[in-house]
Each structure stands twice: as structure tokens, then as C-alpha cells.
Specification:
By secondary structure, this protein is mainly alpha-helical. The chain has 20 helices and nine strands. The chain is elongated.
Length: 520
């Protein structure tokens, strides 16, 4: 069992993703965080006692911002706010994403800007530790705080709403709390808005997406390396000069050097390193300029990590409890524009990675035709072997599937953040649509992983069929060997690609973990 301790120091997006993905993680707030949360709550209670008008504490929300809530109605108002915002629609988030939402909000409490009670923060930690899995609708946020998703969590905390039990069945929120040994939360003044007004869905699910994007950055280099091996054997290509340190020193683009170095490592010890080998002076740009494309994508992934950690370690609450000045201040830190634009740019980057991959697959198609012709010729001379030879072939139109996936990536690259209408009587007249941008990015990740798996399969198949056996690189040899086992089972195309994705995840993790451990 892992332990995720939340203090007042920096929180890593990758650590959040790890703890969210593993339900055995125990989450705890250290004493520094508890002290800061307590100081923030003191400020809220002082402000409430002063009679000062403060948004959401003793006023209505949105267009009702200047309408006061009577003191005798404040506690009832908390419940009304949560019920009102619990309006999401669509499919429910999976367990990892639901945990990520709760965990991201809990981290937000620990920054001291929300003004919740220490006990309320501890209650959210116990939702995670005791396996309470709220049913959180995926759709409903326009990216000016993920109000509907967070209200679904808060509703369960109140003993309302719905959650999933251990068997995956929907049950009332009250039953989920009772099964976990928890009593329903009674929110204090100002806590309802603090529970729902944050970007914890975009941040939490974005952290999970970050892990997948890091895998794709590595997988892209693996697929490229396998294609270099294949094109060297069938078309006299595989020139490694574009990946040389000299080329990378000449233009210091963040990520480019890392991509080129990864390719050199994957190919080390293999035939492509032989300086006596004759190779074309220049391969097509989908090979030759791949470090530039993959490097730019790596740069965007790094930007996403930075953006997520700005949100995790910042205070996005409105009103903000400013512990330093002892005041509550209205503002717009709940508007995660940087994060939304990062989700946007990554979809565009993935489309470019996909373009290069599909073009490399296209250049590996003629050798497949030649292999099929060879198999047919062999079958005509030995009719009994025809069926076995045909079964050995790679599904012939995987390239067409790759082309379809590329078309999807291009479609998904269109802007998602520009479409929000004005809301709440034109008071909320701009929104980031960060959740929509993230959801489109999740679709792009899925399509890109399938496309890169097809490239890896295609290249590995050609390497297995190559008539002249030449040693593969240390990394490419490992991956081609793993994929050879999948190909040997001759599964239908859908299973072939899905199994390959699983194998590639494991192989990529092994290769890059070993590299990281070996780096001083």
C-alpha cells in the first residue's frame, strides 16, 4: 500500500495520477496542511461574524451575487447550493478519474485558500481511503470551475446523490457512506461553494492523461525506430545522421534531443549503427524530421505537466481566503485558461505525430505486397501450404485503419475552447471549456496509441519476414520479439491491435525505466 502525504509543499501531477489510479493508496494530510486549513477557516468565520458581504458566503451566486442570504438560512443554503449544482449528465467517470477529482480537490483544500474546516478536508481524505466511489457525470462543466462534477462528489458527502458499491452497482450515496463507516457531512457556512468551485476534474483527469501522454511520447520513438530498422532492410533507408548529436546540438529545441537520443538508444548494438552499411543519403521527412516532430510533442507534454502543477499548487478558489492578509477576496483564479490551451495544443501535436506515423506505414506497404506475392508463389508450387502461408500475413488493410485513425486525429485537433456561450445573465460571459478540450484529448490519445501500435506491428512483421537477417538494436529487438509472440497467435485485427497496445505499454515501461535508472 502506498501513502500519499499532502503537506504545504509542492505536489507532483504524476504523484496525483499514481495515487488516483491505485485505490490501495492511503491519503493523509500532515500537520502543516491541517494548520494552514485551520487558519483559513478562522478567516472565513471572522468574515461571517463581521457581517461583511462576501460572495457565496452570505450572498447568492452568479447573477444573484448582490443578493444577501439571511444568517438564519446560511446552513440550509449550503445544501441548496450543492443540490442546485449537481446537474451533470452523460456517462459516469471511471474509478481512477473519480478518485483523481476527489484527490485534486483535497490538494486544493491544503493550499489554504478554500476556507473549509479541517474536518471537511479529513472527510474527503476518508472518501478516498475507504473506497467511496461517487457517480460523477462526465459532462456539465464549461471550465469555469468544474461545478457539476464536484457537486456530484459533494452530494455523496451529504448522504445524497449516487455512488458505486464494491460490485459496481449504483447505490444511494447514503448507503455508500454507511458501508464505508462514514456519517454524512454537515457543511458549514461557505463550505458548499468551496466544495464545488474548483477545477478538480480538469486537473485530476488531466494528471491521468499526462501519464498516457508520456507513454505516447516514448511509444512514438519506439515505432519510429522499428520503422527505421524495416526501411533499412527493404528500401536502403534507415540513415541515422538526423539523430546524431551534431544535428541535435545545432538546434536546441526542447524535447528534440531527448527524442533523438531515445532512438539512438533503441537502435544501439544493431545493424543500423554499422558505418560500413550503405544507406540512402536522406530518408523521407517522416523519418528524417521525426525528432523535430516528436520533440515538439514532448515539449507540449512538459508544458501540460507544468500547467497541471500550477493548478495543483495554486489557489483557484473564489472567493479566495488569503491567509497572509487575513481577508477574503473575489477573483478569477478558477479560470484555468493555461490548462485549457495546453489540452488544445496537445491534440494538434498528436495529429502531427500521427501524420508522420501514417506516412511511415505507407512506405512500409510495398514490402508487404512483395511478401504476399512471395507467399502466393510458394503456395502455387505447394498447394497444401497455401492456407498456412496466408495465415502468416499481417492483416492487409491495417494501413487503411491507420489512415482512418489519422483522419480522426486531424478532426479532433480542431479548437474546442472557443464555443462556450455566455451564462448567468451575461455575468459569466467567458468560459475555458477545459473539460471539453480534455475529453477531446483523451479521444486523441486513444486514436494515436492505436496508430502507433499499427506502425510498430507493421515494422515488426517486416523484420520477422526479412530474408537477410541482420541484428536489431537492443531496444528494437526486445519490442519486435514481444510483438512476434502476439503475431504468432494470429488473432483477428481488433484483438491484434489491442494486445499489441498492452505489450507495447509493458515494453516501453521496461525500456525507459531501465534507461532512467542507468542515468546518473
Amino acid at each position: 500500500m502506498g501513502i500519499f502525504t499532502i503537506g504545504t509543499g509542492p505536489v507532483s501531477a504524476l504523484a496525483v495520477a499514481e495515487a488516483a489510479a491505485d485505490p490501495t493508496f492511503h491519503v493523509e494530510l500532515n500537520q502543516e496542511a491541517l494548520n494552514l486549513i485551520g487558519r483559513g477557516r478562522d478567516i472565513v468565520e471572522e468574515a461571517a461574524a463581521s457581517g461583511q458581504r462576501i460572495y457565496g458566503l452570505n450572498t447568492l451566486l452568479g447573477s444573484g451575487r448582490d443578493t444577501a442570504v439571511e444568517e438564519k438560512s446560511l446552513l440550509a443554503y449550503q445544501v441548496q447550493v450543492i443540490r442546485y449544482h449537481n446537474s451533470g449528465v452523460g456517462p459516469y467517470l471511471d474509478r481512477a478519474a473519480a478518485r483523481a477529482v476527489i484527490l485534486a480537490r483535497l490538494v486544493g483544500f491544503s493550499r489554504g485558500g478554500s476556507g473549509v474546516r479541517v474536518g471537511t478536508a479529513g472527510f474527503y481524505a476518508e472518501l478516498l481511503n475507504r473506497g467511496v466511489y461517487p457517480a460523477i457525470p462526465r459532462e456539465g462543466s464549461v471550465g469555469s470551475s468544474d461545478l457539476t462534477q464536484l457537486a456530484a462528489v459533494a452530494a455523496v458527502a451529504l448522504g445524497e446523490g449516487e455512488a458505486f458499491d464494491a460490485s459496481g452497482m449504483l447505490v444511494p450515496g447514503a448507503k455508500a457512506l454507511a458501508d464505508a463507516g462514514l456519517q454524512a457531512l454537515q457543511p458549514a457556512a461557505g463550505e458548499a461553494l468551496a466544495l464545488v468551485s474548483a477545477n478538480a476534474y480538469s486537473v485530476g483527469a488531466g494528471a491521468l492523461a499526462l501519464v498516457r501522454l508520456q507513454h505516447l511520447a516514448r511509444l512514438a520513438d519506439v515505432a519510429l525506430s522499428l520503422s527505421l530498422e524495416a526501411i533499412a532492410r527493404y528500401d536502403g533507408g534507415g540513415n541515422l545522421s538526423p539523430f546524431s548529436p551534431a544535428i541535435q546540438r545545432a538546434k536546441a529545441v526542447d524535447g528534440q534531443r531527448d527524442s533523438a537520443a531515445a532512438v539512438r538508444r533503441l537502435l544501439s548494438g544493431g545493424w543500423l549503427e554499422d558505418v560500413r552499411r550503405e544507406a540512402s543519403v536522406q530518408d523521407a521527412l517522416s523519418f528524417r524530421a521525426a525528432p523535430q516532430t516528436h520533440g515538439a510533442f514532448r515539449f507540449l507534454v512538459a508544458q501540460l505537466r507544468s500547467g497541471l502543477e500550477v493548478e495543483l499548487n495554486g489557489r483557484g478558489d473564489n472567493p479566495l481566503v488569503d491567509v497572509e492578509s487575513g481577508t477574503m477576496v473575489s477573483g478569477g483564479n478558477f479560470q484555468p485558461m493555461q490548462l485549457a490551451l495546453s489540452f488544445e495544443s496537445l491534440r494538434l501535436g498528436l495529429a502531427h505525430v500521427g501524420i508522420s506515423s501514417e506516412r511511415r506505414i505507407a512506405k512500409l506497404y510495398p514490402p508487404q505486397r512483395a511478401i504476399r506475392a512471395r507467399h502466393l508463389a510458394a503456395a502455387s508450387s505447394a498447394p497444401g501450404a497455401a492456407s498456412a502461408l496466408i495465415q502468416e500475413e499481417l492483416p492487409g488493410l491495417l494501413w487503411y485503419s491507420a489512415a482512418g485513425l489519422l483522419a480522426e486525429l486531424k478532426f479532433l485537433a480542431a479548437p474546442a475552447t472557443l464555443g462556450a456561450p455566455t451564462l448567468s445573465a451575461d455575468i459569466e460571459d467567458h468560459s475555458t471549456l477545459a473539460p471539453l478540450a480534455l475529453q477531446q484529448l483523451e479521444k486523441s490519445i486513444d486514436a494515436a496509441e492505436k496508430l502507433l501500435a499499427i506502425e510498430s506491428l507493421t515494422a515488426s512483421y517486416l523484420l520477422l519476414e526479412a530474408e537477410a537477417a541482420q541484428p536489431l538494436g537492443n531496444g528494437t529487438g526486445l519490442v519486435a520479439g514481444r510483438l512476434a509472440d502476439v503475431l504468432a497467435d494470429r488473432p483477428p485485427a481488433p484483438d491484434l491491435v489491442e494486445r499489441s497496445r498492452t505489450v507495447l505499454r509493458e515494453a516501453v515501461d521496461q525500456l525507459f525505466t531501465e534507461t532512467e535508472e542507468a542515468t546518473p
